[in-house]
Amino acid sequence: MNGAVVADKLGTGAVTAGKISSGAVNSSNIFSSGVVNGAAIGNGAVTEGKIGAGAVAEDKLNMATHFLF
């Protein structure tokens, strides 16, 4: 990503909710641009404790993709 600020340029705790404009980060500007994908998520990064109750449900899964793999 040209011009992106990468993790090694930020100090720990430098980006907080209070420093991000309301509505600046949402599903349309993250997922539609391809920012969040398998390459962007490290192995073991998504754990049960990080997923809200009901966040993964059958109605939210793309079953066609599931059957391809």
Describe this structure in words.
The protein has two helices and no strands. With 69 residues, the chain is largely without helices or strands. The longest helix is centred in the last third of the chain and has 6 residues, at 63-68. The model has no long low-confidence stretch (mean pLDDT 76).
Order of helices and strands: HH
Mean pLDDT: 76
Helix content: 10-25%
Q: Could you give the distance between the termini?
A: 29 Å
Q: Estimate what percentage of residues fall within beta strands.
A: under 5%
E-strand count: 0
Q: Runs with pLDDT <50, length 5+?
A: none
Backbone structural class: little secondary structure
Biggest pleated sheet: none
Shape: extended
Any idea what the radius of gyration is?
15 Å
The total count of helices amounts to: 2
Write the layout of secondary structure elements.
Blueprint lengths: L26 H4 L32 H6 L1
Features:
14% helix, 69 residues, little secondary structure, single chain, extended
Question: Could you provide a short overview of the structure?
Answer:
This protein has helices at residues 27-30, 63-68. The chain has 69 residues and is mostly loops.
